[in-house]
């Protein structure tokens, strides 16, 4: 078959980028690494200055945040991953606080320009359509508003369905590169995380629609759902943990109101198995993040159940999930999108789950959030809170009642000092509440 495009080198393609431009990079494992490298070579050669870099979480190298590129590249990401975290914390790079579901709005309503979108896609089919594969995120919105789109055609990108399909005519420059996608491995759950998984699983009903992140706690939860029925998935991300449940028929989406029978997400990260799973699989819809993370879409799914984690929680129920004090660790992400959407769904549940202490034994349940910490989920939004010591529902509880509930699932080593902090905050009436409240 005659080739449908004329390829150029990465070095030729990035010549379209000029000083002062805003550049969007596609996310997670689907970063066009050869374009990033070529762009940085131009910066190193002194050809560019004040180029703004935007993206969600990315895997792999992010050389544009290195000190040598100060004044050349300005990194303003929508979410902070491990590859840029140190640079953001040092002030060499920056972060834009934004709900994940509203990142597209920044482009579509022109709060942020997009001069060039750098993306990665699978080879075109016989009709000329390529696919964004494992990561749609805000890339469509970036492309819609970009002056130029540069795409890396990579045979290792799976062909996913949903919003990920793009006709090759929408692409201005095509580069060929078959660098394998970055794979992710997750640590086995600790005993505490396994216990948290069991508590979460007890709250998940047959017919529920799930959102959860990636990592050891989500995997611990999924491992406890093998006897559940008619589970659906509407999430911003998923990984290998769903595969045994799909194979067994536990995850079938039969009870979903929207996208019945489909697994809906905006990005995927994991082993090669998960990329193979989404390849040409009509059961999986990779959607624009504006859709997956819209609380009013989420709320339409019956028994919508979200599970999100936290860095710290205070006695009033404020949840910090983005920062360590005044140092950004990750970002707002989609937590509040799903907390609010799930809590508004018929039969829905919004869950915040975390170990009571860090792996070094530092208490994560505190009288007040550390100075500078961001309250991602507010005390007004929180419902269920789970640690390895139990599950409590804070919705509708007074400040004193919820302090007592939160302390009840703290590590026993810290409960006495938390009780003293609560008494200091609320006064002697706190003891009366503790004795007489039916919580």
What does this structure look like?
The protein is α/β, with parallel strands linked by helices and 439 residues long. The chain has 2 domains: 7-176, Glutaconate Coenzyme A-transferase; 191-436, Acetyl-CoA hydrolase/transferase C-terminal domain (Glutaconate Coenzyme A-transferase, 3-Layer(aba) Sandwich), CATH 3.40.1080. The protein has 15 helices and 26 strands. Helix 6 packs across helix 7 and helix 13 packs antiparallel against helix 14. The radius of gyration is 23 Å and the shape is globular. The model has no long low-confidence stretch (mean pLDDT 96).
Short description:
This protein has 439 residues and is α/β, with parallel strands linked by helices. Helices cover 27% and strands 20% of the residues.
Write down the CATH topology of the largest domain. Glutaconate Coenzyme A-transferase
CATH superfamily of the largest domain: Acetyl-CoA hydrolase/transferase C-terminal domain
Spatial strand order of the main sheet: 9-17-15-13-12-18-23-25-26
What summary fits the major beta sheet? 9 strands, mixed
Compute the average pLDDT: 96
Percent of sequence in beta strands: 15-25%
Number of strands: 26
Q: Could you name the CATH class of the largest domain?
A: Alpha Beta
* Fraction of residues in H or I helices: 25-40%
Number of domains: 2
Number of helical runs?
15
Unreliable spans: none
Looking at the overall shape, the CATH architecture of the largest domain is: 3-Layer(aba) Sandwich
Structural class: alpha/beta
Global Rg:
23 Å
Distance between the termini: 70 Å
Shape: globular
